[in-house]
Structure formats: C-alpha cells, structure tokens
Structures
1.
Amino acid sequence: MTTDTTTTGATPNTTGTTILDARGVTMRFGGLTAVNNVDLTVSSGEIVGLIGPNGAGKTTFFNCLTGLYIPTEGEVRYKNRVLPAKSFKVTAAGIARTFQNIRLFSNMTVLENVLVGRHTRTKEGFWSAVLRGPGFHKAEKASRERALELLEFVGLSAKADHLARNLPYGEQRKLEIARALASEPGLLLLDEPTAGMNPQETRATEELVFAIRDQGIAVLVIEHDMRFIFNLCDRVAVLVQGQKLVEGDSATVQGDERVIAAYLGEPLENDPGAAEAAEVEAAEAAADTTTDTAAGKENDR
Ligand SMILES: Nc1ncnc2c1ncn2[C@@H]1O[C@H](COP(=O)(O)OP(=O)(O)OP(=O)(O)O)[C@@H](O)[C@H]1O
Ligand SMILES: [Mg+2]
C-alpha cells in the first residue's frame, strides 16, 4: 500500500482562518508508532472528518490534540498558541471533546453532568464556593441557565433530573456533547458520536453537528459511519496505520481507490503483498472445491 499523502479535490475552506494547526504529530508507544508524522488543520466554520480502519491511530491523534498525550514529535497549535500539556488547560484554551467510550458521571443527574462541564468557564474560585457569597450564587445561577439551554439544544431538557446512567445509550452520547459544549469551546472533537445509535438517532446527530457549526464552533469528527461522514464534512482526512493517506472533500475521498483498498483490504496493483494474497486466495479456493466435492460425494451416497 502506498502511503504518500495527497491533498486532492476542493481546497479546504479558505473563508475561515486556521484555528487548529497540528504539524508532524507522531505518537509512539514503545516500538509501536500509533500516529506517524500527521499534519492536520481545521479552520473556523469547518466540519472536518477523520476516518480510517480500526487501530489506525484516530483516537490516539485526538489524545495528542487534547493534552491527554504529549506527542513524541510534532507540535499542535490552537489559535496560534502551542497547546498546554494538560487536558483541563486545553479545555480552558477552547478545545472540548467527547470520548469513544462514554465518560459520564453516571450517578449524577443529566443537569449536574453539564454543570461539571462548565467549571473551566466559571471564574468563581474555591473560597467563593465554600463561603457561598453573592458572587457564587450569581455565577451558579448563570451556569445553571446555560446548562439548561444546552440541554434544550441537544434535546435532553425533559431529562435534566434523570440520573445519567438511566439514559439510553444514544442520549448518553448527546449528554456528552452537551457537557463538552458547556466549556464554550471554539473547536469540538467528537470521537465516534454515533456509535451504537440507530439510523434515526444518527440522522439527528448529523443535524446537531450542523447546528453546532452554525453556532460558530468548528468540529473535528471521527466516525466509522461513512454516510454520516460524507454527508456532514467539508473535508475528510484518512488515517491508515498512523499515517495520513489522503485528504480532500467528501466526493474525492469517497472515490479514492487507496481509501477503498484500505477499508476493504484489497491489495493494490504493485502492492508487495499482492502476489502472496493471490496465492492464498487460490489455495483457499482449491480447498473449498475439494471440500465441496467430498461433501457432494457424501450426499450422493
Ligand atoms: N496507551 C497506549 N499504549 C499502547 N498502545 C496504544 C495505546 N493507545 C493506543 N495504542 C495502540 O495504538 C494504535 C492506534 O490505536 P487507536 O485507538 O488510536 O486507533 P483508532 O484509529 O482510534 O481505532 P478504532 O477505530 O478501533 O477506535 C493501536 O494499535 C492501539 O493498540
Ligand atoms: Mg478510536
């Protein structure tokens, strides 16, 4: 498989300014290079997709963008400033995320989960909270109003007092989005937001992401549901074995034979493994014929 990186199709949204600028990001775990020299930008007003087979390094790349991992090499800038190396500082800087494996406070209510998401935006400090003075009560009221507004936005206001653990899976994902939005981000990273959703919930999530973008928040989204990605994204980057294979608009990426090969596992022309794969296939076909024949004889008896 060739791994040369090409940017094809429509040029990325040139109307917005670049807010996220990841350059040469590499993440190694011992001998394994999970992310290999990846460049990626996101501009304001853009929805960018990140796709790739299981284990391609997508979540690891997100972790490098959010201060969970410090990249082995490379640099990530958000609004022209190098990202701090702590995740809560990254959130405060304006990047929020959801997780592939939902991370909610399951024994807290839906509203409380969103309020937790607001803490990076609340200026009231420790003593203010302990003493519960007028400043604290005013800030608390404002936070509560904003949290309820966000629950309305994602369609969960009727369940504000429910425990998070009692929500169906699709609604837990929505709650994660509301909690991420509570930090008032400029860029939202979504890691498989429709995993486990039915088709209706997936369509609703698509609309939700458009609505988030319309509020001036750029979105970078990982997803395996290709229809969702290609409907939604202005630009799509494909990671394969840690490297960015292709980047372009939906139509271009969808038709790129290297992407099709990466997903379907079809050997490419001149692929060094193609001859071996063909031999294995031929051997398997021969074995099938033998078995069929034997079974046929068995049946004939
Ligand atoms: N903390 C870690 N320590 C060691 N290896 C890791 C760690 N995190 C991820 N990896 C490895 O890095 C590679 C990329 O994993 P990652 O989770 O980023 O893939 P992904 O593209 O998100 O896959 P999926 O679509 O299945 O979520 C995998 O081989 C994985 O086992
Ligand atoms: Mg992942």
2.
Amino acid sequence: MGIRTGNEYIESLRDHRTVYVSGSRIEDVTAHPPFKGIINTLAALYDLQREHPRELTFPSPANKQPVAASFLVAKTAAEVEFRIRAEQMRADFNYGLMGRMPDFCNALVTDLATGSDDLGARDSRLGANMVRYYEQCREEDLCLTHTLVDPQIDRSRGPADQSDPFLVLRPVRETDRGVIVRGAKMLSTLAPFSNELLVAPFMPRHSGEEDYAISFALPCDTPGLKFICRESYDDGRGDFDRPLTSHYDEEDALAVFEDVLVPWERMFIYRDIEIYNSIMMKRLGYTQLQACIRGFAKLKFLTGLACHIGEAIGRTEALHVRAQIGELVAKVELIHGLVRFGAQEVAESKAAAVPPPAISATLWVLIPQTQLQAIQLIRELSGSGLILTPTANDFANPEIAAYLDKYLRSKTLSARDRVQLFKLAWDMIGEPFGSRQLQYEWFYAGDPYYTRSRFYGLPMVQDYKDIVTRLLHRGK
Ligand SMILES: Cc1cc2nc3c(=O)[nH]c(=O)nc-3n(C[C@H](O)[C@H](O)[C@H](O)COP(=O)(O)OP(=O)(O)OC[C@H]3O[C@@H](n4cnc5c(N)ncnc54)[C@H](O)[C@@H]3O)c2cc1C
C-alpha cells in the first residue's frame, strides 16, 4: 500500500474506538471540533510525504512502493543522513511542537525490529512478531503512539503491591487466540488520533513482577480498550488568538484495558523481566535521534521567537539582551552539533552503548534545560507585552480598533502584527498548551533525576576521579 494521503489517514480514524473527553463519549473523533486542528496537522504531515517523495520516502523492500523515511533501517552513513534530513524537514514543518508526530513511533518500531534477536532471545516467535509488526506499520503507513508508564497511584510500591493487582496492566488469562489483559497505562499522547497503540516496556520490573513485564500492540479500536482524554486545550479560539493550540494540541489519554484480547501474534514480550528491562536501553538509536531532531526544531523556533520579540520592541540594541539571546543561540548550535555527532554514533551502530552519551545527554539534559532557558528569556524580554494581547474580536470592533492600532503598535510592527507575535509567545509559554510543552520535554525520557543519574555511572567518571587522585597523590 505505501504512504497514505491525509484524507486516507483521516478516514482511518472513523472506526469503533472508544474515546472520552470532558465526560462525553466521542463517537467520531474526526467530527469533534477541538480535535479538528490537530487532525488536519497530522493529515498535512501525511500529504507532505506525497508532495516530497524524494526527501521523505524510500522504496519498500517488500514491493518498492514509497514508504516513510522514518522506517528506513539505515545501513550506511548516507542512509542515516537521509533519515535525519527527512525527520528534520518534518519536525520543522510543525516547529518541533509534536512529540508524537508519527516519525517518533515509526523510529521506535524500527529500532525494536532491528533488535528482534534480543526480543526473541528466549522465544523466537516474539522477535518475529515484532518484525512482522514493523513491516505492517511501514507498509500501511500507520499512525502509532505508545504507552509506557504505570498509573501513578503509589510510586513507593511496585505494580504487584498496589491495593489492587489489576490497577497496572497485566494478563488475566491465556486463551488459544492470545492473552486477556486488564489494567491501565497512565499516559498516551496522540491516542485518539492514532491507528495503533504500542504498549512498550519502561519502568524496571523486579523479581515477582513477571505479570507486569509484557509488551504488545493493538489497533486503537480494539474492543475493551478505552481512552479517557484530558480536557482539550483547543476551545475554538482560532488562529489569531491561539496560533499553536489551534493546530498542535496532541491530546493525552489514560489507556484503560477492560479485559482486552491481545492476539499472540501481537505479543512482543511476555512475562520476561530480563528482556523487558533491557530492550529499550539496547535499541533506541533511531528513536532518540528523532527525538533530538524534533527537540532541536523546537529550540530553533523558541530562539527565533525571542529574537522577533526583542526586535519588535526595540530591545535588541541593548548589550545584555544581545548577550542573553546570543547565549541561547550558542546552546542551540551546541545541540545541533551534538545531534550531528549522535547521528554518527547511530551510523556507526554505537548507539547500543548504554546510554549512548551524545544523544542521551542532548535529549535528557540539554534540550529540556535549554527550553527552560528560552522560555525564561521570552518572559523577561516581553514584559507586559505578553499580557496585553486583545483578541481578534477587539480588533474587529470599530469603537476600539483605532486605539489598539495607535497604542499597541511596535517599533517595527502594526498593532495587529505585534499582538499576533505576543499571542504566539503566550500560547507557547503561558497557555495550557505551552505549559504542557515544558512538562512534556521535562518528563519525555522518564524521571529526569533517574536519567541524569545514569551519567554518574558511566566509565569516564572514574577517569575524571583519577585526575584528582593523581593530583592528591603528587609528591607522596
Ligand atoms: C505531556 C506529557 C506527555 C506524555 N506522553 C507520554 C506518552 O505518550 N507515552 C508514555 O508512555 N508516557 C508519556 N508521558 C509520561 C512520561 O513518560 C512520564 O511522565 C515519565 O516517565 C515520568 O513518570 P511519572 O510522570 O509517572 O512521574 P514519576 O515517576 O511519578 O515522578 C514524579 C516525581 O517523583 C520523583 N521521584 C521519583 N522517584 C522518587 C523517589 N524515590 N523519591 C522521591 N522522589 C522521586 C521524580 O524525580 C519526579 O520528580 C508523558 C508525560 C507528559 C508530562
């Protein structure tokens, strides 16, 4: 089948999925007004592949039909470069604001399929299931999302020691056709707009938690699977008043499994703690690289926003403002360099190191910190401009429009353009959409203290310590 059109993608969402938002069941997600903006954005991403097949697709190994670049198992440096350029073009297309654009999970299933030997180490059928699943996603150009984390109920206890052992997703019983599972997963971004849900391993499991060491994938309209979404941020305020919310609100949902059948052929890890705990860290080269590329796209956007604001209100002549923006540019360029270096690690298959230092440091430390810095800078630069942003309706009212035009213009912009710029900034950092963006980046890779602490365990830490030991022992 190969790549789909945007319309084909939209049509594919008209199935029997069970989605709740603000207390109501949504029968057809494509007709729910707050979902229209993001669905159109996703459809545009599908159309983009049709418009740029040379840049964004490669011939399927199965039938030579064009398939998405993010499924490419790159064998040469040039092929890694091709993947990067494609993912960069698509991340730039939505300003890096969509953590779950399809490229991300495409990269994840590609990573997992290339690690099928590890998945199938004890039962080769499980590895083969992943390869077949990857091929199906690639050939049908499916939109995937994933869910990893257990409900947050009581983090001081393991999944088996919660008040009810079925709070966290686990098998109930086996049948000839597969495994019946029950429980929940805490968060699944993009779930209402995805074709498939991949339940992937994440939180380390311990001895006695075998039932919680499972991984599988299901179509989002599987009977018994329910998505309970957070409230939609897009309340119909439109392009002028909410320029980002109205296009990029990916949604997040609690995934509830009410005695759901997982067919055996969709099972990838089954009651195997060792494989569950090791597979993600062994095989995340393409996934992490895509996430870095997307994070870099967002930082470029935030830095450009800071520049526009400073220039609009005539502040960029001040040395301290130039220095603040300059520091941000330096960090974004540093990240750019690290992404390039990380790509080299992937090309040389070094990404299997745990953790791959260049990519992980970029993703787990530098991107969230730099995003925080960019947001703080935009707040500082903007002052009250960030707050006094009349609506499209205000500009349409002739009784007050002339005052707005007169008093809200900037050094370089008309009042309407200046307000539009500050509204963009407020949507990015002040509105629920923007607050979520920061929360997302901070928690993208899991508990940020855990991810950072992993660096303390790297072998080079001993080298650093030895330098000091040498000095302390000088002359002794
Ligand atoms: C916007 C957004 C979108 C997301 N999308 C997805 C998605 O699509 N799919 C998905 O699977 N997940 C998603 N996640 C979930 C993400 O993976 C988790 O947020 C992340 O793994 C952290 O888990 P948690 O939220 O349960 O926080 P917790 O692990 O409960 O951590 C909460 C806090 O407790 C601290 N803490 C941890 N251990 C201890 C301890 N021993 N003592 C004291 N404090 C401790 C942590 O450092 C942290 O500050 C998303 C999260 C966000 C915010």
